[in-house]
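Anyone have tokens for Ubiquitin carboxyl-terminal hydrolase 47? Sequence:
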Amino acid sequence: MEMVPSEEKQLVPREIESAAEEPRVLCIVQDTTNAKTVTERLTLNLPASTSLSKLFEDVAHKAGYVNGTFDLAWSNTPDMAPLDQGSDVSLVDSGFEPGKKNFLQLIDKDGEQPQIASVNSSGLDDSSQDRFIGPLPRDGTVGCSSDYSSPSYSYSSILNKSETGYVGLVNQAMTCYLNSLLQTLFMTPEFRNALYNWEFEESEEDPVTSIPYQLQRLFVLLQTSKKRAIETTDVTRSFGWDSSEAWQQHDVQELCRVMFDALEQKWKQTEQADLINQLYQGKLKDYVRCLECGYESWRIDTYLDIPLVIRPFGASQAFGSVEEALQAFIQPETLDGPNQYFCERCKKKCDARKGLRFLHFPYLLTLQLKRFDFDYTTMHRIKLNDRMTFPEELDMSPFMDVEDEKSPQTESCTDSGAENEGSCHSDQMSNDFSTDDGVDEGICLDNTSSTERVLKPKITQEDIRKTYGGSSGSRGYYSSAFASSTNAYMLIYRLKDPSRNAKYMEVEDFPEHIKRLVQREKESEEQEKRQREIERNTCKIKLFCMHPVKKMMMMENKLEVHKDKTLREATEIAYKLMDLEGVVPLDCCRLVKYDEFHEYLERSYEGEEDMPMGLLLGGVKSSYMFDLLLETRRPDQVFQPYKPGEVMVKVHVVDLKSETIAPPVSVRAYLNQSITEFKQLIAQATGLSAETMRVVLERCYNDLRLLYVPNKTLKAEGFFRSNKVFVESSDSSDHQVTFTDSLLWKLLDRHGNTIRLFVTLPEQSPGRLANRTSCPKASGDSEDSFEGAKGSRKSVEAILEESTERLKNLSLQQQQGCSTSDSQKSSDHSDFEHIESPAQEPDSAPQPAPLDDRTRVASGGSASGGASDPENQFPSEERSDSDMNNDRSTSSVDSDILSSSHSSDTLCNADSGPLPLANGLDSHSITSSRRSKAHEGKKETWDTAEEDSGTDSEYDENGKSKGDAQYLYFKAEPYSPEDGSGDSQKCLLVHVDKRITLAAFKQNLEPFVGVTSTQFKVFRVYANNQEFESVRLNETLSSFSDDNKITIRLGRALKKGEYRVKVYQLLINDPEPCKFLVDTVFAKGMTVRQSKEELLPLLRDQCKLDLSIDRFRLRKKTWKNPGTVFLDYHVYEEDINISSNWEVFLEVLEEPERMKSMSQLAVLTRRWRPSQMKLEPFQEVVLESSSVEELKEKLSELSGIPLENLEFAKGRGTFPCDISVLEIHQDLDWNPKVSTLNVWPLYICDDGAVVFYRDSTEEPMELSEEERSELMKKESSRLLKTGHRVSYSPRKEKALKIYLDGGPTKDPGQD
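Reply: yep, here.
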């Protein structure tokens, strides 16, 4: 092939040059053979005349695969027909469109994964290829005519070595500074060779904590590994760092110094003990010369790097080059005026000249460009991106000390620069804060290879010039046009000395201990590669199973199986994974294709038991569009074949006589079947008559469709993959009625809106039921409404007798507070465990409840006409309520999330009998609300809560019930929880129409609780047993779903304008300053004094607190912080904003109340005694204004500290603002320069602020190390108990440390 020079002076094939004039075809290839690469895209922009075979070659080259081991197919072709790899047909003739995106997929060939190409697979050996570290070339390169690339670089595999021949470093998070330094040290031959010559003794040190060993291991991997990039976690672990350090940005020069110090410590008494000094240490003279007598005072200092200022302090322009900055570094300054120098020879202060002189330059000269500065205008740290040039060869002779230039230390320091042999560290750069995309491949100027062949460098002088920073124009402070992170920050020059300049140690020249290390790492890498190969060939797919024992719950797991395993072997793996051993025989299980979202069985695999899973699933993919289901059957059953294209229908048989709906029977049909054929199919599965069959499709919630057109297809009726139908076949007259008026529709409507709730009743029900809820009896059929009612009649009568006696005894105790006539109305049938509707008479046979005569939610006073006075409180109710809610958090608004609970159906046909509708609702009951036709045209009542209180009232202004006169389903029966938690409490299983309001729901619960609905509260129980009170009586139960839990607690329900309030005691000097006392009710318009009067008997009876009304106060509570003090004359909702489930502090006063008006300010003060290392108890100071002067005067009067010596500081955090006594003296902002308390940094605008104060003349106690350590332990223990951090530091930046003992000793008090 003829080669011609391109614009970049490189030789390219002539066909590529001519191809630039013809149309281009953009190919975007997705590699679907590997889970790691499925989200990446390979992009190729090829001439339209390119052949298919050339396309395959280019894709193989770019993806890193061996050509011929993969196929390419169109992405938009369903059958994935592969392209002809050996064809010479052009792309245009093969269907590719020029100027458009052509999407292809790289797929397995014959079920085999593509083979990864080796480093030399391109036909060129390592010695003949250009090597560089950095991103792969984006423009046209020999061997691949791609000049288009996607924004995100695509790596074919982490196991593939980069085409540069170098191995990169993975950026842990923000460790680019570390990677830069490691790359620099690795590319320094003298440092790398010396590190290889050091031998690690495992018997003397743990390899995990050995910094030299981990660096040595990293360098070996960088030189010999076949990976694309290496992790640095082992190196940082040897530093003693944890994962959080990876998110700390540090300075590369600081890291260099700290790491060199650590290496010197580790290398003591070894051959490398003085390595750092030999390579990096120089000497300079710090002198002062008298200008009168010429006397010079000086000292010799050593240095490892030279910090060069970018922009002098106060200057508007920066230095333009490294030479200018070096000249400024040694430029002497004149000491005159007040800065005169005292000359020992003149014996007086004289003008002098002070400066630095270089005496000796190191072999490796490190220059730090100080690009980070502090802006005193904005008070922030900034980066200077100004342009500063640096030469390839740096002549240091102008900066030597002329007087000492004949010194042996300076003879060799003539200059330093690039070496002609191609050493990559004549001029070496390491920039901090570089941009990384997860992999750092570094910068290297190595232009030689093992055969000494000189090739054109990949990094050009233009690339180096881009690291100068700034722009080509003005060098102003803010004039940088390249405010980027690629500006040079650290320069390393190597001395030109052929006798010392070393080359990299080759692999064959490695010491024996390094060769052993290489072998170990190679074996580890091969093991990792084998493991990755296994993962690449492993199919990972979701697995489901309806477990036949564990409550018939749908269980989920992940099946991981090798692609070469057969379906039979995969079934056995899934069998063990789902814990079916000993439950179901293995031959009664099979894997089928399953769609979890639609609960659809797509197909079964009859006769394919020996087919590999890779072929069965369509290859190894990162995700599949389907799942697998492990289906089980009974030994006497036979698996039903599932064919592709079928739809699954769950058929529920409805019995109108017993008003029951049976569990589903699975039937498979085709979308092109007619309704008549579908009815015959159902008749075969259920045994019903197809002639009289009515089929109702439930397409979605609130949508029931009767299928009555015989010739209409299932597809036309709206069937999909998975469907749910209800069928009924009887000779009743219900067939003649319009569907929406039929009994079938009403039954399905009730079925769709009925939910099952678990209700826990109080342990005792001390109230009495004045009147029972009435329900009209059936006027028609006499059949039992639900199965099992007759069998439970005897136990119900026994329970009723016990309940009657209990209620009679309670009524006798209440005769003083209630009328005798009312107490006698408690009837025999007011029991806790009555199974049937509470309207039925206990001595009569259970009556059916037809759909038209459901349990009535009565209006007016029918439910509680004889209710006792709501103000009549039972002490036991209040105690029970407050005790149970001691530590519970409640919410005024029952803002429950609307959710539905759907259990999965049995996937095989079962011969289970029909279950009662209320007692055995099938698990697929729709839990979303469906509007009943009976309520059409009627305005729905939602939340009619009073705007002023945020709560609903069950009664109107005349005290009458506002419940809607609706007939909605309600049924309750006793149950015992499986966990035994309900032994001491009565539990109900309630089936209720969720369109019922909370008020009506409470009225239906009255007979079971034993008190009127105004005397108990409803709490909804969430996960982790959190309880929230439901208070909006006019809202429906639509937010509830199946199996939700409800707890009933005794206590008066709220009226209009009332709020439930939790009262906590504030104990400012106790270790636990917040203690719950009681629950109470405050009302709108009530004064604070009135609420205090109502609190007194509660505090006396329940908390044993006998207080005077003038010796305690109420104040605002914001989490744990005490706030505004409420004065007695304040009115709730007028002066004090109040909300439901409000919380207040009760504070006992030792003296009469000093707060008289809202203009006063109550501050909690605490004295700090540094001489005793202790804090005194809190004392309250009442201020008449927000003046700092008044606060100081009050504190001075309180403590006796002179006003001029008094200092104060505001506490931090939540009350009581705990802080360690070891930190309080220096960590708080003492004596802020403000005149009022309500400004920054104090912001003390409300009562309850914490203020510490001290005597400025009081010196802190001198502590020995033992005393300090002991005190630190005590403080840690104290602060941990209060939940506060042991230490507080406002410092945001973390100092860089390397720990030689493997890690820092953590303070037990720190998180």
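The chain has 24 helices and 51 strands.
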